[in-house]
Design brief:
Elements (H helix, E strand, L loop, with lengths): L22 E5 L3 H14 L2 E5 L2 H10 L4 E5 L1 E2 L2 E2 H9 L7 E6 L5 H7 L3 E4 L5 H9 L23 H15 L5 H18 L2 H15 L5 H16 L5
Parallel strand pairs: 1-2, 1-3, 3-6, 6-7
Antiparallel strand pairs: 4-5
Helix pairs in contact: 1-6, 3-4, 6-7, 6-9, 7-8, 8-9
InterPro entries: Bact_response_regulator (IPR050595), CheY-like_superfamily (IPR011006), Sig_transdc_resp-reg_receiver (IPR001789)
Protein name: Response regulator receiver domain-containing protein
Keywords: Phosphoprotein
Length: 238
Protein backbone atom coordinates (compact mmCIF):
# COMPACT_ATOMS: atom_id res chain seq x y z
CA UNK A 1 0.00 0.00 0.00
CA UNK A 2 1.46 3.37 -0.96
CA UNK A 3 1.03 6.76 0.65
CA UNK A 4 -2.04 7.71 -1.38
CA UNK A 5 -4.01 4.55 -0.68
CA UNK A 6 -4.45 5.19 3.01
CA UNK A 7 -4.28 8.98 3.35
CA UNK A 8 -8.04 9.20 3.77
CA UNK A 9 -7.82 6.81 6.69
CA UNK A 10 -5.18 8.80 8.56
CA UNK A 11 -4.71 12.55 8.79
CA UNK A 12 -5.99 15.47 6.73
CA UNK A 13 -4.06 18.71 6.14
CA UNK A 14 -4.80 21.74 8.31
CA UNK A 15 -4.10 25.45 7.95
CA UNK A 16 -1.14 25.20 10.33
CA UNK A 17 0.15 21.89 8.99
CA UNK A 18 -0.76 22.01 5.31
CA UNK A 19 1.28 18.96 4.28
CA UNK A 20 -0.12 16.63 6.92
CA UNK A 21 -0.57 13.11 5.57
CA UNK A 22 2.01 13.49 2.78
CA UNK A 23 5.29 11.60 2.43
CA UNK A 24 8.25 13.49 0.96
CA UNK A 25 11.20 11.57 -0.46
CA UNK A 26 14.29 13.78 -0.34
CA UNK A 27 17.12 12.64 -2.61
CA UNK A 28 19.99 14.77 -1.39
CA UNK A 29 23.63 14.04 -0.54
CA UNK A 30 24.13 17.18 1.54
CA UNK A 31 23.27 16.69 5.21
CA UNK A 32 22.91 20.46 5.61
CA UNK A 33 20.33 20.77 2.82
CA UNK A 34 18.57 17.63 4.01
CA UNK A 35 18.35 19.00 7.54
CA UNK A 36 16.70 22.15 6.15
CA UNK A 37 14.15 20.01 4.32
CA UNK A 38 13.60 17.85 7.40
CA UNK A 39 12.74 20.94 9.45
CA UNK A 40 10.42 22.20 6.72
CA UNK A 41 8.60 18.87 6.60
CA UNK A 42 8.37 18.83 10.39
CA UNK A 43 6.85 22.33 10.48
CA UNK A 44 4.45 21.41 7.67
CA UNK A 45 3.27 18.03 8.99
CA UNK A 46 4.81 15.90 6.23
CA UNK A 47 6.72 12.70 6.80
CA UNK A 48 10.23 12.63 5.33
CA UNK A 49 12.28 9.82 3.92
CA UNK A 50 15.82 10.37 2.70
CA UNK A 51 18.09 8.89 0.08
CA UNK A 52 21.61 10.20 -0.48
CA UNK A 53 22.18 8.79 -3.98
CA UNK A 54 20.38 7.44 -7.03
CA UNK A 55 20.84 3.81 -5.98
CA UNK A 56 19.28 4.41 -2.56
CA UNK A 57 16.41 6.41 -4.07
CA UNK A 58 15.58 3.66 -6.53
CA UNK A 59 15.56 1.17 -3.68
CA UNK A 60 13.04 3.35 -1.83
CA UNK A 61 10.84 3.63 -4.91
CA UNK A 62 10.68 -0.15 -5.29
CA UNK A 63 9.02 -0.35 -1.88
CA UNK A 64 6.67 2.66 -1.79
CA UNK A 65 5.52 5.67 -3.78
CA UNK A 66 5.89 9.02 -2.03
CA UNK A 67 3.49 11.88 -2.66
CA UNK A 68 6.36 14.31 -3.25
CA UNK A 69 9.97 13.86 -4.36
CA UNK A 70 12.62 16.55 -3.95
CA UNK A 71 15.67 15.61 -6.01
CA UNK A 72 19.09 17.25 -5.96
CA UNK A 73 20.41 17.64 -9.50
CA UNK A 74 23.99 16.62 -8.62
CA UNK A 75 24.36 13.27 -6.84
CA UNK A 76 27.45 11.16 -6.17
CA UNK A 77 26.43 8.39 -8.58
CA UNK A 78 24.88 10.43 -11.37
CA UNK A 79 22.49 13.20 -12.35
CA UNK A 80 19.24 13.80 -10.52
CA UNK A 81 17.71 14.49 -13.94
CA UNK A 82 17.83 10.75 -14.69
CA UNK A 83 15.79 9.94 -11.59
CA UNK A 84 13.34 12.76 -12.33
CA UNK A 85 12.77 11.36 -15.82
CA UNK A 86 12.16 7.88 -14.38
CA UNK A 87 9.62 9.14 -11.84
CA UNK A 88 7.94 11.45 -14.32
CA UNK A 89 7.40 8.57 -16.73
CA UNK A 90 6.39 6.08 -14.04
CA UNK A 91 2.89 4.64 -13.72
CA UNK A 92 1.48 5.68 -11.36
CA UNK A 93 3.47 8.92 -11.35
CA UNK A 94 4.80 10.58 -8.22
CA UNK A 95 2.35 13.47 -7.80
CA UNK A 96 4.84 16.29 -7.26
CA UNK A 97 8.45 16.14 -8.46
CA UNK A 98 10.68 19.06 -7.47
CA UNK A 99 14.31 19.53 -8.45
CA UNK A 100 16.77 21.43 -6.30
CA UNK A 101 20.26 22.79 -6.88
CA UNK A 102 22.62 25.58 -6.00
CA UNK A 103 23.33 25.92 -9.72
CA UNK A 104 20.56 27.85 -11.48
CA UNK A 105 21.76 26.59 -14.86
CA UNK A 106 20.36 23.14 -14.05
CA UNK A 107 16.78 24.43 -13.88
CA UNK A 108 16.18 24.00 -17.61
CA UNK A 109 17.58 20.47 -17.48
CA UNK A 110 15.30 19.64 -14.55
CA UNK A 111 12.16 20.79 -16.37
CA UNK A 112 13.21 18.97 -19.54
CA UNK A 113 13.48 15.77 -17.49
CA UNK A 114 9.91 16.21 -16.23
CA UNK A 115 10.20 18.13 -12.96
CA UNK A 116 7.12 20.05 -11.85
CA UNK A 117 9.09 22.74 -10.06
CA UNK A 118 12.55 23.92 -9.05
CA UNK A 119 13.77 24.92 -5.58
CA UNK A 120 16.90 27.03 -5.72
CA UNK A 121 19.35 26.65 -2.85
CA UNK A 122 19.65 27.81 -0.16
CA UNK A 123 16.54 26.02 1.06
CA UNK A 124 15.43 28.29 3.87
CA UNK A 125 11.97 29.74 3.16
CA UNK A 126 9.16 27.62 4.62
CA UNK A 127 6.43 29.37 2.61
CA UNK A 128 8.23 28.78 -0.70
CA UNK A 129 8.60 25.09 0.13
CA UNK A 130 4.95 24.65 1.10
CA UNK A 131 3.63 26.59 -1.89
CA UNK A 132 5.81 24.64 -4.33
CA UNK A 133 4.04 21.47 -3.20
CA UNK A 134 0.51 22.69 -2.52
CA UNK A 135 0.20 24.57 -5.81
CA UNK A 136 0.79 21.32 -7.68
CA UNK A 137 -1.61 19.13 -5.68
CA UNK A 138 -5.30 18.66 -6.58
CA UNK A 139 -7.60 21.04 -4.70
CA UNK A 140 -9.05 18.20 -2.65
CA UNK A 141 -5.59 17.44 -1.28
CA UNK A 142 -5.06 20.97 0.06
CA UNK A 143 -6.13 22.30 3.47
CA UNK A 144 -9.61 23.78 3.64
CA UNK A 145 -10.06 27.47 4.36
CA UNK A 146 -7.42 30.21 4.55
CA UNK A 147 -3.83 29.22 5.25
CA UNK A 148 -1.55 31.43 7.28
CA UNK A 149 1.55 32.53 5.38
CA UNK A 150 4.68 31.64 7.30
CA UNK A 151 7.71 33.89 6.95
CA UNK A 152 9.84 31.56 9.04
CA UNK A 153 13.44 31.18 7.87
CA UNK A 154 14.78 27.68 8.42
CA UNK A 155 18.30 27.44 9.84
CA UNK A 156 19.78 23.92 9.97
CA UNK A 157 22.03 22.73 12.79
CA UNK A 158 25.68 23.72 12.06
CA UNK A 159 26.70 20.15 12.86
CA UNK A 160 25.09 19.12 9.56
CA UNK A 161 27.47 21.50 7.75
CA UNK A 162 30.42 19.87 9.45
CA UNK A 163 29.14 16.47 8.30
CA UNK A 164 29.17 17.78 4.74
CA UNK A 165 32.74 18.96 5.17
CA UNK A 166 33.72 15.48 6.35
CA UNK A 167 32.11 13.99 3.23
CA UNK A 168 33.91 16.48 0.97
CA UNK A 169 37.24 15.71 2.69
CA UNK A 170 36.76 12.02 1.93
CA UNK A 171 36.03 12.74 -1.73
CA UNK A 172 39.05 15.02 -2.06
CA UNK A 173 41.38 12.26 -0.84
CA UNK A 174 40.45 10.14 -3.87
CA UNK A 175 42.08 10.39 -7.28
CA UNK A 176 40.94 13.66 -8.84
CA UNK A 177 39.61 12.54 -12.19
CA UNK A 178 37.26 14.79 -14.13
CA UNK A 179 34.11 13.21 -12.71
CA UNK A 180 35.34 13.57 -9.12
CA UNK A 181 36.25 17.21 -9.62
CA UNK A 182 32.86 17.93 -11.20
CA UNK A 183 31.04 16.28 -8.31
CA UNK A 184 33.01 17.91 -5.49
CA UNK A 185 32.67 21.34 -7.11
CA UNK A 186 28.91 20.93 -7.42
CA UNK A 187 28.60 19.56 -3.90
CA UNK A 188 30.73 22.17 -2.15
CA UNK A 189 29.39 25.16 -4.07
CA UNK A 190 25.82 24.13 -3.22
CA UNK A 191 26.57 23.47 0.44
CA UNK A 192 28.60 26.66 0.82
CA UNK A 193 25.85 28.73 -0.79
CA UNK A 194 23.27 27.20 1.54
CA UNK A 195 25.38 27.95 4.59
CA UNK A 196 26.44 31.43 3.47
CA UNK A 197 30.11 30.42 3.27
CA UNK A 198 31.10 32.73 0.40
CA UNK A 199 34.84 32.04 0.70
CA UNK A 200 34.41 28.31 0.20
CA UNK A 201 31.87 28.84 -2.58
CA UNK A 202 34.25 31.12 -4.49
CA UNK A 203 37.06 28.57 -4.16
CA UNK A 204 34.82 25.82 -5.53
CA UNK A 205 33.74 28.03 -8.44
CA UNK A 206 37.38 28.87 -9.23
CA UNK A 207 38.17 25.17 -9.40
CA UNK A 208 35.20 24.63 -11.69
CA UNK A 209 36.25 27.42 -14.04
CA UNK A 210 39.80 26.07 -14.28
CA UNK A 211 38.47 22.59 -15.06
CA UNK A 212 36.16 23.99 -17.76
CA UNK A 213 39.11 25.80 -19.39
CA UNK A 214 41.24 22.65 -19.36
CA UNK A 215 43.75 24.17 -16.94
CA UNK A 216 45.58 22.20 -14.21
CA UNK A 217 43.37 21.82 -11.14
CA UNK A 218 45.55 20.03 -8.59
CA UNK A 219 46.81 23.17 -6.82
CA UNK A 220 43.31 24.63 -6.61
CA UNK A 221 41.95 21.27 -5.44
CA UNK A 222 44.63 21.13 -2.75
CA UNK A 223 43.73 24.63 -1.62
CA UNK A 224 40.06 23.69 -1.51
CA UNK A 225 40.87 20.57 0.48
CA UNK A 226 42.78 22.72 2.96
CA UNK A 227 39.79 25.02 3.40
CA UNK A 228 37.56 22.00 4.03
CA UNK A 229 40.00 20.74 6.67
CA UNK A 230 40.00 24.18 8.32
CA UNK A 231 36.23 23.98 8.68
CA UNK A 232 36.44 20.50 10.08
CA UNK A 233 38.92 21.71 12.69
CA UNK A 234 36.55 24.43 13.88
CA UNK A 235 34.55 23.56 16.99
CA UNK A 236 30.81 23.55 16.39
CA UNK A 237 28.44 24.23 19.23
CA UNK A 238 25.67 21.64 19.47
Amino acid sequence: MDDLDHIGLTRLPTANRPLLGLTVLVVEDSRYACEALRLMCLRSGARLRRADCLKSARRHLQVYRPTVAVVDMGLPDGSGADLIAEMSGGVPRVEVILATSGDDFTETEAFSAGADGFLAKPLSNLEVFQTAILSRLPHDRRPLGPRSVSQEVIVPDPVAYRDDMAHAADVLTDALDDRTVAYVVQFLSGVARSAGDSTLMEAAIALSESRDKGLPVHSLAASLAGMVQDRLAEKVAI
